[in-house]
Fold this protein.
Amino acid sequence: MNLIKKLFVFTVICSLAFGMLAPVNVAEAADITAGDLIKSDVSSAVYYYDGSQRLAFPNPSVYFSWYEDFSTVKTISATELAEVTYNGTLVTMRAGTKLVKIESDPKVYAVEPGSVLRHVADEATAIALYGSDWSSMVVDVSDAFWFWYDKTDAVDNAVTADAHPEGTLIRYAGLNDVYYIEGTTKRLVSTEGFAANMFSEEYVVENVADTIAYTNGSSVTVAEDALFPITESNTTVPDPVGSATVALSATNPISGTAVKKAARYPMLEVNVTAGSDAAVSVKLKVQRSGLSANTDFTSISFLEGSKQIGNTKTLNSNNECLSDSINVPAGTTKTIVVAGNIRSDGTDTSGGTAVFSVT
């Protein structure tokens, strides 16, 4: 097999791709300005345009933390969209909306402006700040997207019950007023300020006790750049990080004979190990060679234990197939089995020796 000594991983950013719920605004590329939401006329993927580049939304949770619907999205031609610089920059969760965690770690974090994370140390703190239903606010962030958040002081500057994280909207029990939290200051948000900064009632923390000693700050009455900071949070594209090794497993199947109709016959077993610096996302490319034919196999499966990774694949004219993405948390190893489903119908060849390699 081909051994990958060092695989430099660039994480593929998945653009938002779900149906728009409102009529679109058709525009020319020359008509778009900083702050616009844009998409092409042949795709449902929506981007934020910051004036120089387009930024991708990785999933609906992130998109709807910033916007309530698609009513302001501008549609341009696919050619025009391609001319708008795209460096893979990702929009992160809006501060003060959802709590986030990585899929491979139970720690929960609040998001502050600038994509800054602060660890919510324990359940008692979460209940004191967000109420007994705090867990409903938690969403998983893919390991592959985790590096877009600033985790520098996430633990050392953990959230305490003394103050809500910056960016939180709160409403005291029995009152209608909404306040924006800025450090240890609370700022009254007027009706006009609420709409101008595109706040959402969905993310207002209700029934807050008046035991936290906030000082009164200036009211929020108009749009403020610092309160809707997509361009400030995510314009720096981080260097791709992460390394992986792919090696034969110690239990790699020995040569054997597969009979007709054999399902998921194990042909190759490899260990994919992520370095300690970051999670990685990899795809394995399998190539068939030897005295055999592609028609000997109805399909190829990639398995982690008994669980299939994505859909089955078929060998192409280059005798190759590519797995779906395999996400490996930092410092861990996943064992992947490449299995063949052997043909049994009238197109069978007379048999032969198949050799499989992976890159």
Remarks:
- Confidence is low (pLDDT under 50) at residues 1-24, 232-237.
- The two ends are 8 Å apart (CA to CA).
